[in-house]
């Protein structure tokens, strides 16, 4: 591809249409994404899409949706706590166990139940 000056441009324009409601493809996809690819990347995507019998657009859209879901899931499933809370938690986990009275009573009840059999 070249412009008016005859200079080759090393990119390929690809348009990916996405549905605004996740995977509900019953409604027409109207949101639009556009990005540039190196020609060799476009060729790999086209080859991969052909192997799974999908259009390049469907293949790229599906791959993008799946990656977005993974990233969002990883981000949303992470618990963020202040550093001093985390340090205190690690110290508590590293400290020797000290049973409290309720735990000692529960252990006695469990021991007598097992010995009473």
TrEMBL record:
<dbReference type="InterPro" id="IPR014795">
    <property type="entry name" value="TacA_1-like"/>
</dbReference>
<protein>
    <recommendedName>
        <fullName>DUF1778 domain-containing protein</fullName>
    </recommendedName>
</protein>
<keyword id="KW-1277">Toxin-antitoxin system</keyword>
<comment type="similarity">
    <text>Belongs to the TacA antitoxin family.</text>
</comment>
<dbReference type="InterPro" id="IPR010985">
    <property type="entry name" value="Ribbon_hlx_hlx"/>
</dbReference>
<dbReference type="Pfam" id="PF08681">
    <property type="entry name" value="TacA1"/>
</dbReference>
């Amino acid at each position: 591809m070249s412009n008016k000056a005859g200079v080759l441009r090393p990119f390929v324009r690809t348009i990916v249409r996405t549905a605004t409601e996740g995977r509900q493809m019953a409604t027409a996809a109207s949101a639009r994404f556009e990005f540039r690819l190196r020609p060799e990347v476009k060729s790999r995507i086209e080859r991969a899409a052909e192997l799974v019998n999908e259009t390049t657009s469907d293949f790229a859209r599906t791959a993008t949706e799946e990656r977005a879901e993974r990233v969002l899931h990883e981000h949303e499933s992470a618990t963020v706590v202040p550093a001093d809370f985390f340090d205190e938690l690690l110290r508590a986990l590293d400290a020797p166990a000290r049973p409290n009275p309720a735990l000692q009573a529960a252990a006695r009840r469990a021991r007598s139940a097992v010995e009473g059999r």
